[in-house]
Amino acid sequence: MMGKKIFYASLVVLLIVSFANLSAEETPQGTPEESLSFTKHSIQIDGKALNYTATAGTYLLKEDNGKPLANFFFIAYTKDGVKDKSRRPLLFSFNGGPGSSSVWMHMGALGPRRVFYDDEGLAFQPPYRLVDNEYSVLDVTDIVFIDPVGTGYSRMVPGEDPHKFHGVMEDIESVAEFIRLYVTRNKRWESPKFLIGESYGTTRAAGLAGYLHGENNHYMYLNGVVLVSGRGVADSPPRDGDLGTSLRIGDYTPPAWYHKKLPSDLLSKTLPEVLEEVEKFASGEYLQALIKGNSLTEDEKRAIAQKLSRYTGLSTDYIMKSNLRIQSNDFKIELLRDRGLAIAGYDSRYTGIDPGVAARSWKLGAAMADWLGPFTATVNHYFRTELKYETDRKYLILESLPWNRDPSVNVGEMLRQAMVQNKYLKVLAFKGYYDSGILAAKYSLNQLEPAKLRDRVKLVYFEAGHMMYIHKASLIKWKNELTEFIQSAIPD
């Protein structure tokens, strides 16, 4: 009898120990598992054949004690036949939102396949299709597209606290951990490393640069950071207040110029020439007038309103009634009211027939309506048919996440510290003229201190909007600028 008790006690202990030693992939039902799909492909870039491997799948993020936290979905493209990976750059790409998957830059500019648009960046009639992207940067760098938790196929473990991921620093920390995991597993610590983030992704990229470099974190030094379609990162200007209002005039001039609502003498100039004039007015006379407020005489106020009318295409009377302060949503409706149209957010070249939607809906405005359908259809088809990654889980293109926008987190300062700590770190910023934040982005980058950092920062403008790369001429310029930047930021 005693022997049986000892046997059963030993069996129970053995089962407890065995269960405790199970990996995350072997834990009870409900725990996510890692899954990877590897496929081989070839593409012609700049007239040369390039063979590459595509890896689509998930990495499981865990706490130090092995507890699973979330599955991170990613797509990696790596050039075949590279013997010395220390000479091959590695680019990590993500979009913004927060709540956006990485689909936009992946299938619009950087990846080896892209959604087919006309040369101006307008969608064709459905069904939509993909074409080889001869302007991909895969010829100069390997690329990893990251879907942060709650986007794409990335999911937290059931029951896990979403606050661990959905905030400025929480997001930075989790994406940094994925990057560390990818670099470690794929033996890329010696490779030159770059980040590229679009929209809110510029906030993530700036913060990641500081976090990856920083003390008590990963000490992972980067070669370059690319900021696409952000308002700015260093002491970003307020959206409200006199400074924010004056800088916002730069958002109104490009659509007024494009839709031919400006005086003939301005229409005869190039847009950069007009914006140079507007910038001087915004930072000088206009800002001073806003600061004076009610102390302005009626004549002074009307003189400023007339100049605002000249640069925005709105009537002097309307601007006077608006107290010299034009709101973005109002401008979208007013500029083309005489044509029964409203201009779109994200890319003011687009117009919509429903002014209410144009002003209120960031997802269903004229520009987003032209992007969501084609990108959603093609990426879902692409994953299953070409990358052989099959799942019934919904690919979350663009979600509204409960975000903790912690005002105490200064990502501009994090980027600045990374640049001070790493004297070789360079920054490239891309901005479309028909996006918002034209002058704000320039202002923001000009605030980087000390002034010597400016020697490692470049701002490039495009004749397009938020997703400038779907405009073919801008895509070609994008490829050339990005290639030059990567090559300038790595050792000879």
Describe the 3D structure.
The chain is α/β, with parallel strands linked by helices. It has 2 domains: 30-236 and 372-488, Alpha/Beta hydrolase fold, catalytic domain (Rossmann fold), CATH 3.40.50.1820; 241-360, no CATH class. Helices cover 39% and strands 17% of the residues. It contains 16 helices and 14 strands. The chain has helices at 2-20, 103-110, 168-185, 200-213, 241-247, 249-258, 264-267, 271-292, 298-312, 316-321, 328-334, 355-360, 366-385, 411-421, 438-446, 472-488, and strands at residues 36-45, 48-62, 68-79, 90-94, 113-115, 130-132, 142-147, 155-156, 193-198, 224-228, 342-343, 351-352, 426-432, 457-462. The strands form 3 sheets. Strands 1, 2, 3, 4, 7, 8, 9, 10, 13 and 14 form a 10-stranded mixed β-sheet that branches. A hairpin with a 2-residue loop joins strand 1 (36-45) and strand 2. The longest helix is centred in the middle third of the chain and has 22 residues, at 271-292. The radius of gyration is 25 Å and the shape is globular. The chain starts with a helix and ends with a helix. The model is unreliable at 1-29 (pLDDT under 50).
